[in-house]
Amino acid sequence: MSKTKKIKSISDYNGYDYKKIFWEDADRKYEDAADRIAVRRLLPERMDNFADIAGGYGRLADEYLPRSKKATLFDFSQTELDQAKEKYGKKLNTVQGDIYNLPFKDGELTTLLMVRATHHFKDIDKVLKELYRVLAPGGTAVIEVANKRTLPRIIRYWTGKTKISPFTHTVANLSEIDKDGFFNYHPKYIEDLFKKTGFKIDKVLSVSNFRSARLKKIFGNKNLIKMEKSAQKILAPVRFAPSIYYRLTKPQVK
Ligand SMILES: C[S@@+](CC[C@H](N)C(=O)[O-])C[C@H]1O[C@@H](n2cnc3c(N)ncnc32)[C@H](O)[C@@H]1O
After folding, report:
1. Nearest ligand 1 atom to alpha carbon 23
2. How far lies 77's CA from each of 4, 18, 95, 155, in Å?
3. 4: Cβ below 6 Å to ligand 1?
C-alpha cells in the first residue's frame, strides 16, 4: 500500500494525468474560460506573495503570474507539480504538501487562490482555518466552492430523480461520483462558515453557469463564453451555478 493511501483526507492525483484526461481529452474549453474570467475579475492587480492552493498543474498560472511578485503552486500531487515546473521553470515555485497542514507561516501569504478543490475536503472547516492562518491580515483569498444548490439539481430533486435535497444546509457527499467523497456545499452553509472562520465576504460571482453538454451543442463554446461573461455578475445574487466564486478578505488587526 502506498504511503499516501493511509491518509484518508487526501484525494490522490499522483500518477493521474489530470491535465490530459480531464481538460484536454474532454471538451472543457468553456469551463476553463469561465474559471479564467472569474479569476481575472477577482484577483488583485498586484500581489506580493501569492499561492495557488491545490493548484494542480498550474492550469491558471498564466492568469496570476503577470500579477505576482512571488508565486507558489501548492499541491499534494508531485505528478502535477512536475508538469508545472516543466512549463514554468523558475517563474513558479512549487511546494508539495497536505492542505490540512499548510507549509506556510502564519500570515505569510498576501493573496491565495483555491479553485475546483473544495469538493475533495471532508473537513472543510479545518481547511478554511488553515487558509485563514497563512493569509496576512488585510490579505485576499479567492475561493471557488462546489455548489449543491444548482438549477439542474433542483429540477432533479423536484422530479424525484434524486433524494438529495439541494435546499438543506448539510454538506452533500456525492459518493457515486468519487467513492472517497465528493462534497458539495449550500451557499448559506459555506458563507456562514467563511464568516465564522473570520473572513469578510467582499465579492461573489456565479461561474460555469452554462455547464451542460446540450448547451455546448446548441450554442457552441464561443457564444457560451460570451454569455458567461455577462452572467457571472448578474446571476451572482441567486447562486444557482455549479461554481460559486468568493473574494474574501482577512480583516486587519486593530
Ligand atoms: C480538481 S483538481 C484542481 C486543480 C486546480 N486548482 C485547477 O483548477 O486546475 C484538485 C486538486 O486538489 C489537490 N488536492 C486534493 N487533496 C489535497 C490535499 N489534501 N492537499 C493538497 N492538495 C490536494 C489534487 O492533487 C488536485 O490537484
Report:
1. 9
2. 10, 10, 10, 36
3. no
CB atoms within 10 A of CB 254: 4
The Cα 229–Cα 135 span in angstroms is 29
Q: Ligand 1: which residue has its CA nearest to atom 11?
A: 54
14-146+186-249 in CATH: which number?
3.40.50.150
Ligand 1: residue of 36, 52, 75 to mutate (most ligand atoms within 8 A of CB) is 75
Distance of alpha carbon 245 from alpha carbon 102, whole angstroms: 22
Matching residue, cell 492552493: 53
Side chain identity at residue 7, one-letter code: I
Predicted confidence at residue 9, as pLDDT, reads: 63
Three-state secondary structure of 100-145? HHCCCCCCCEEEEEECCCHHHCCCHHHHHHHHHHHEEEEEEEEEEE
The 10 Å Cβ neighbour count of residue 207 is: 28
Q: How confident is the model at residue 104 (pLDDT cuts 50, 70, 90)?
A: very high
- Span 146-204, pLDDT tens digits: 999 999 999 999 999 999 999 999 999 888 788 778 899 999 999 999 999 999 999 99
Res 65 pLDDT > 90:
yes
Please give the distance, rounded to the nearest whole angstrom, from the Cα atom of residue 132 to the centre of ligand 1: 18
> Does residue 80 line the site of ligand 1, with CB under 6 A?
yes
Question: Could you tell me if 116 and 147 are in contact, meaning their C-beta atoms sit under 8 angstroms apart?
Answer: no
Over residues 144-153, the pLDDT tens digits come to 999 999 999 9
Distance CA 115, CA 56 (A): 10
